[in-house]
Amino acid sequence: MFDFLSTVNLKNQMFLEIGAGSGVISLLASKLGANVTATDINPEAIEATKGNSVLNNLQIKVLRSDLFESIEILAYDIIVLNPPYYPKTPKNNLEKAWYCGNNFDFFHRFFEKLNIYIHIKTKVFMVLSEDCDLSEISRIAQSYGFYFQLIDQKIIAWEMNYIYSIQIDNAN
Description:
It contains five helices and seven strands; from the N terminus they run αβαβαββαβαββ. Strand 2 (35-40), helix 3 and strand 3 form a beta-alpha-beta unit. It is α/β, with parallel strands linked by helices. The protein starts with a helix and ends with a strand. It has one domain (2-168): Vaccinia Virus protein VP39 (Rossmann fold), CATH 3.40.50.150.
């Protein structure tokens, strides 16, 4: 995602990162001129993102949020996420980085609320691995009126990672 976003014009864009972790993507977006909101459910990740933004002298709004739960309702220009995608119920905040729930609950909750935070020109980018159930995640997106368009792929360490643009399915 870092390499891909380096090629996107982020100047003056309203940018939301869900699941920011240490904030690397949000830091890049801020450095490239975006107005950034970074969120994560893990309080340690929130503190890391805040610390990294201070160290890099970058202005980033950092929020602890379970998906859209604590995010002000407004339409963002760009939304990015590297979601948890293994179907298992997480037992703690650390596991929430990897496990999306037995029934892919994370994706149901994400796509159910996504329309509230986008406008006609919003770009939504999601990273998924070859290790996840791409067909099930795509099916869930379609059930909420979205579809995936593959825009980039790259082998990182031993696995293929895909960047998808999430589009509104106007056929529905």
